[in-house]
Design goal:
single chain; mainly alpha; 42% helix
Length: 118
């Protein structure tokens, strides 16, 4: 004797709608606003130490040198401060100009610290 496998038709599953309660909405809004609130608090705490005016700061003055073809930071450092160690002068120039490497472009204006221009 053989068995026949008869499957009963499955009833369609009704689609459920997600419903959020009033309390759930408040929680979602608070979670979305939390990073903004934290950012405002941190900036208020960190910004308290910043100077709002330039009364206590001295004006920054420096001379600039135009980079010519063949110039390197070493040659510029040797030219502006012949008696100083070029490695120290190069580090000061890199720090003042926010240079990450020793590469400079022809035609660029390089700021020289006032220590070496006097």
């Amino acid at each position: 004797m053989s068995t026949i496998d008869i499957q009963a038709p499955m009833a369609p599953v009704p689609a459920t709608r997600l419903r959020i309660t009033a309390r759930g909405r408040r929680v979602v809004v608070m979670l979305a606003a939390l990073p903004v609130v934290v950012g405002v608090i941190l900036s208020a705490l960190a910004g308290g130490s910043a100077l709002a005016s330039g009364d206590l700061t001295s004006p920054v003055t420096f001379e600039t040198v135009a980079v010519m073809p063949g110039d390197t930071l070493w040659s510029i450092a040797d030219e502006v401060a012949p008696g100083a160690d070029p490695r120290v002068v190069i580090e000061d120039i890199k720090r003042l100009n926010n240079l990450r490497s020793g590469m400079i472009q022809v035609g660029a204006e390089i700021a020289i610290p006032t220590v070496y221009t006097d």
